[in-house]
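Justification of computing resources. Each target in the renewal requires a structure prediction run like the one illustrated here; the chain below, 150 residues long, is used simply to show the kind of job we budget for.
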Amino acid sequence: MIIYAKVDGTPFQFERPETDSRGFHIGSWAKYCPYCLEGWAHFSAAHDGEMKGHHAVGGQMCADCAYTRVPWFHRYVPGSLLEEPAMNFQTLDWDLLDYLPRELLLREFRLHDQFFTRQDHSNASTQQLNYPIQATYAAGAVATGNEREI
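Resulting structure tokens:
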């Protein structure tokens, strides 16, 4: 399956399987920031030239508004592509890290690094997030079973 993506105004294209490791079918989605109302991420899933799957639209704070408009605790990493609009917070798309182009993978690293640098890790609600990306990126690679250097 081919994913046609546009993130922060830059177009990308990459391939990934039609189903992720959770058993979810990959669909098309868009994310809009509830503060600036900008559409900052759009993913269109196509197989054999036809769009496939659900077409979800969700609200998620963009990376630009995250710490300037609402500097307190965030439930998710602002601007991250891992939370899918059609799913709930408990189902992050970790498989996406295996298929993102290098530029988007580095963008995820920077966003997660900024998130964990700004959060108060003594806060019990922050500890419940349990984002494994923090430790794996610190080691310089994504430990998803299909490691690659970034």
